[in-house]
Amino acid sequence: MKGKAHKVGAHIDTDAIIPARFLVTTDTAELGANCMEGLEAGWVKRVKPGDIMVAGENFGCGSSREHAPLAIIGAGMPVVIAHSFARIFYRNGFNMGLILLEAGDDVNKIGDGDEIEVDTATGKVTNLTTGVSFMTQAVPPFMQSILDKGGLVGYVKNRLQA
After folding, report:
1. How would you class 17 by CB atoms within 10 Å of its CB: exposed for 0-12, middle for 13-18, buried for 19 or more?
2. How far apart (Å, rounded) are the C-alpha atoms in residues 124 and 103?
């Protein structure tokens, strides 16, 4: 995957990702149109399909809502690279089909607007703007199988059909 980095800070909670007033739907496009509205009005207007969200520590803290990863997906961002994730968001993200990579302090090697490339199979992240690369943990095979089916619902449906 390749896209422009959109940096957000540390401790971004699910209310910032998708405020409660937008939780009247599970439609990803509608949620995506309001992604990060709790952080900055109109934030999502800078995003193009395939862009990548880059975050600080504890991304996705707060309430456990599946709408938050759906909003990120609906905004056109297939992956979030963060210093670290809140555990419940981490699992919800994969369950909804969102790729999440923990980079620790290496996340600071990405600037807002940098062009980055991600190889989820190896965990390699390359900042194409600066030429710097670093490794994150690769997506585990079981989690990749969930992502390949579009999330946990698709994975379970596939298993039941088999």
Report:
1. buried
2. 10
